[in-house]
Amino acid sequence: MSVLVYTESEQGAFKKIAFEVASYAKAVANQLGTTVTAVTINADNTNELSNYGVDKVLSIVHSQLDSFNAKSYAEAIQQAAEKEGAKVIVVSASANSKYMSPFLAVGLQAGYVSNVVAAPTSLSPFVIKRSAFTNKAFELTQINTEIKIIGISSNSFGLVENKSDATKEAFSPTLSENTIKVESVDKATDKVTIADADIVVSGGRGLKGPENWGMIEELANILGAATACSKPVSDLGWRPHSEHVGQTGKPVASNLYIAIGISGAIQHLAGINASKVKVVINTDPEAPFFKAADYGVVGDAFEVVPTLIEKLKAFKAQQ
Predict the structure, then answer these.
(1) Hey, is 300 helix, strand or coil?
(2) Which of 136, 141, 210, 227 has the most C-beta neighbours closer than 10 Å?
(3) How confident is the model at residue 181 (pLDDT cuts 50, 70, 90)?
(4) Are residues 206 and 58 in the same domain?
(5) 166, 210: one domain
(6) Is the pTM value of this prediction over 0.90?
(7) Residue 8 in contact with residue 18, Cβ under 8 Å?
(8) What percent of the chain has pLDDT over 90?
(9) The pLDDT of residue 187 is above 70
(10) CATH code of residue 223
(11) 3-state DSSP call for residue 138?
(12) What's the rounded Cα separation, in Å, for the pair 253 and 134?
C-alpha cells in the first residue's frame, strides 16, 4: 500500500516538478511507514527517480498517451493506483495535472486537495496545509475519504535527494477509446518554460514597445530564466499570450520574479504572489507593486536593466 506519485515528463524527459512531487511523496511515505511507487508515462530515463526516494517505478508506454488527454491519463493512473492499492496519490500543480485530477478523483472516489505546500500535519485525521485566496493565506484542510489525492504547489516543497534502489515494472493499462485527436503540436524548445522556471523576468507597458524586449530576453538568458509579461502587453500584441502571467494568465510560483515596468495591478499580483522573492523596477515610487515586492528599484528600466546585465556578466566572468 505504497504512496503513488505521478511524475510528469515531456518528450521523454522528466520535468523538474516530477522530482519535487517524488520528494514530497517520500516525506509522506516516511510518515505512513510505507514506500513510494512512481507512475511514468512514455518517459525515458526512469532511473533518475531513484535519486528522490522512489522505491518502485510503474512504467507506462502507450501510443494513446503520446499527447496529453486528461481522461486517458486519469484512467492510466487510476488503474496504477488500484493495482498498488494506493490510498495516497501525489500529483503536481501543473495545468495538465489540474485538468486530470478531477477525473482521477471521480474514478477513485477520492478527495482531492490542490495547492498543497507542506507535508501532512496530522495523519488521523488526515490534515494538510494549502494556500488559499490567491496565495494570500493558508488553510488546514482535512481529507475524510479513504483515498486521498494531493496536488503540490510548484516550488513549495523543494527537491530533496534521497537515494534508493528503485525497481522498474512495465505496466499496461486498459484505456477507453480516445475521442480527441491531436494533429500536431508546435512548441518552442529553446526557452525555459514559465511553469518550470526558477527565475522569471517579466516586462510591462513601461518598456514602451516590443522593440525594447531585447534587454528582457538578454537578462533572462544570463539568469537562465523564463520571460513573461503583463496582460496589457499581451493584449497589445507585443508578446504572445503564452507569456501572460497573472490571475487571468499563467500563475507563477518561481523562486525569483523580476518585474520590469509593471505597475502591479491586483490581477497581476494575484497570479505571481506564490513566488518566493519578488523584485520590481519602476520609475513610479507609488506603483502598487512596491508594496508587494521584497526588493524595489525606483529608476528608469532603460538605465537600470542594462547596468544590471553588465554587472551580471562581470560577475559570471569571475566564476
Answers:
(1) coil
(2) 227
(3) confident
(4) no
(5) no
(6) no
(7) yes
(8) 78
(9) no
(10) 3.40.50.1220
(11) strand
(12) 11
